[in-house]
Queue: 2 jobs
Job 1
Amino acid sequence: KADFIQAIGDAIASFPEMSCLTPRGRYTIKVYPTFLGAHGKTFDYKIPFSSITCLFLLPHNDQRQMFFVLGLDPPIRQGQTRYPFLILQMLSDETCELTLAMAEDELQEKYENKLTQEMTGPMFEVFSRLMRVMVGKKITVPGSFKKNNNQCAISCSCRATSGYLYPLDKGFIFVHKPALFIKFEDVATVNFERMATSGASRSFDFDVETKDGNVYHFSSLMKDDYGRLHAFITEKKLRIKNKAKSHVTYNDEMSGDSSDEHDAYLERMKAEGEEMDSEDEDSDFVAKGSGSDDDLEYDSNVSKDENEGDDSGGEESTERAKKRKKEQSKSRPAKKRKQEPTKKNKKDPKAPKKPLSAYMLWLQEVRPSLKKKYPGFSVAEIAKKAGEKWKTVTDKSKWEKEAVKAKEKYKKNLAEYQSTGKYSGGPTSPPKKKSQSPVKRKSGASSSTKYKSEEYIDSDEDNSTDDEKPKGNKEGIKSKTVNNTTRARSKTDEEMVSLGEEESESEAELTDGGDESD
């Protein structure tokens, strides 16, 4: 069915930036004498009027939008995806003033006064009138089907995509994705599913089987729409697959009234509902203070005579207590394990630092002036202002060249570092002094003689030891203590100096890292 299209001449009318649902996007619709052109940002389509099979104008349920659907055969393609329907979306209150690019005499000759040169009104009406005349086909609108709130569409889902099902006079149409049109003459049977009477489900499913064997499944239809849809299907004389499931009206099913005929489906649904109710009895929710067994309090200080006198009651109470503990343990939320913090690999100080980008090089030059201009701003606010200013910079070649040079230098240093473990431009840090460990003195080797305090020395021993003690012994002890204190002070001073050097190095690394992050 491929054909060549003569795309010569000007467009009769143009509708800019129209919202299209399938294929999705915004397209400028141009109407030519023999075809329809859709021009988008990525794709352009030329649709001959001979390939348009049907036209639909469908109101949205919110009464604020309108769908205009064009059936296409052959369908248009976007890559490997085919679109047999072109669906345009327009606002109901959007007006349009259109001037056709044709003279009045030419319009009278070609279109027999069906079109005027000046056309005004709502957008969907103007577009519908123009397409009806140009394509030469009638536009199908919703017919007799109306819901309780006078809406024409049933909200449902098809292939896990929500949309609207429109029961028309000659078929069903579903918009918008995937768009489907099922004629009544092609329908073999319809089927209602999940019409449970227990009240657990508020929706049902609707299946349409065609004579070709294809089954279209529509799910999540609200039960309020069941009665109108069932009446519409019986009016159109469509064959219902299982009449036992759907010959009872929705109100009769909910009230539980049964007809004289035996309904096997209704009996099965009632049995399933009773089973569900019996299963739910085990897990009914009991509010606090309702008087249930779980809410009873038990006295732990019971005498032995009472326990011996009523063994059966004690066993029941222990069982109830165990049951209560189990329920409490289930109701308690599970404790979350604390995630152990992951150890980050320490950065090698000898490794070359990553190069700054053009923006960071520019920011180093501009930051002092921004701080002067905005003295009360925080770091984040200054960074924001710098980003706004960077967008307005037109000539960035200076910093981009510097960034390229820095990147090349970084690559060279990185290669040198990976091969040798260091590079020529790396930092040269002085060797750290090894901290001298304090010398431990043995009690036995410190002195050959032992000294006692004055409390435990007798007069006789004192006289005898005074003669034996060498002169200047007390002075030697004092000098040793003084030397020990001076050594300890010198060691603490050395440790403080080394700590100061390490803190200065860490501060330098932090400042370098802060500049890189900024």
Job 2
Amino acid sequence: MKFTAVSCSRTGSSLLVTFKKCTILFDCGLELCASNNVQYKLPAFNGVDLSAVDVLLVSNYLNIAALPFLTDYMHFKGRIYATLPSVQFGRMICEDIIRDNSPGTQQNGAGADRTFYDVERRITRWYTKEDIKKSFDSVRTCSFGQRIMLYGGVEIQPVSSGVCMGGSNWIIQTPFEKLVLMANSATSILTNASMSRHYHTQDMDIHPMKNADVLIMAPSVIQSSMRPAVSDYSAQLKKFCETILQVTQVSGGHVIVPCRPTPLILDLFGVLYLFFTNATEAASGGGSRINFPTFMMVSSQAKALVATADIDTEWLPSERQERSFHPDEPFFSTELISMGKLKLFTSIHEDSFRAALSNALSATAIGSSACLSPLVIFVGQSDMRHGEVSHLIDFFHHDPRCGVVAIDPDLTDSSFRLFESHRRDATKLQFFETVLDPRVDVSSACTLIGQQLTPRRVIAPPDVIQALSQSDAAHANPLDLISPSRVSYVDGDRFALKLSRQFERAELDHHIAKMIQPRSLGSNSASASSTFISSITAKVTKRDGKILLSTPSNAAPAGQGLQPLPKHLWGTISHENLFSALSQRFGSQRVRFAAGPESIIQICAVAVAVLAYVCAH
């Protein structure tokens, strides 16, 4: 097996694996950059012949944004496999990106686009909507647990990663070897039962990933080490809701939430509505009042996001699938729309959005810090350097009661630095960093590997390998710390990993199959638990990764000549069984058994000649 780390970015990882002459590319995301001039960066495919890649496996909709570049600009001609939600929501993310990064001439008038960077400088402009349609139409969709045969007898299978709707880890296996490609994963999402009602993601399927020969972990598997210490996703959601409550009720302002158009937003609508409903009931019991906010989503993909999620019910958890057969709406977002608590807009320049914004601003009580109709605006672009979110920030920048809540775990650091620069330019908005990251942390990843997955070998980023070694130091023999079964990698690393192969599957020609005469190794040949063996002479042919055992060219045609007696391959010879077999072959008159201490079997001359001929051939 050969391994190449094409890109080790947490936001745009890409790995290349060659297994049994089948070349597999794992993910093709765009790296999100913190530079003001460069917003996205392509994976460094230098030194990788993409035309020789057989298969591209996509883990989720966040790791597919570079697909139009691969298919239309980099000569990739292999098959592409992904789950249906990964294709649908990945297409929305790509279209949302190019909406604010239109092809080329706005930057320097020469057709180049500085909003992304290609290390090899082969691409000078963004892909178009036609490129997106062409590339995504070529993706072959698959379901969890579906087995797909590839070249060379290699089988692939997606299983739920538990991190997002349609998110998958990939199992690559033959009858005797198994590799696991592990991307963004979450073992336990929500510990709060009331919040789980609004979650769209199936639990992580761990059982098919156990006991792999090699486990390859992508850099995006674990939470960033720069993230806050709150690793429990339910606690993260609670902190997010409390921040929204603080801005809308305590400060009396409006909230801007930059985000990408993903099913996570639909989860947040339900969680926020539940949180504010409980807060309103608690406040009314204490004699106070909560001004229930109105939720808005501004994105070119807002309506498509809600409509697509309504269709993909088979990708939901089992309890949510059951609810889809009830008269009630399976998704809480559709209920909020019918109640008027959620409004969808394609742009901030839409007349209906301007009217809704004007009504909310006019509802602010004169001479009071309280807002009678606070707004929670989700804007379909998590990067605050461009797009409509930057216009909304400029619109509210004079109001210190309003705030911006950054939730994207891959952009909050750069967003905070950018917002600090805006604040120096007299921006009065409040900034809150409440990361929503359901991925496992390093400690949980070590527990998952050591206690549940138990692979023979691990290929992972350095922080995971270091944490595994520290875990060994606390619980195991210190002499076992330097383990050849664990390999770390960084950007551009290439190495080969030898898999000790004990068995191989072969197909038998039907002529060879007819000649097999199995014999039991056990004392009781009639036992169902006995092991049977047989020796064969055959020609071995290996073609297209498959092994075929056929009749040798110098073998006698079937039905001609004497058929050889089966050889005794194992154990001690039974005199009784040998006498019975010879008697059936030559007749009881030509074979005699003299019972005694030496158990002599007497054979006539004709039978001896026949036996000599058979043994010679």
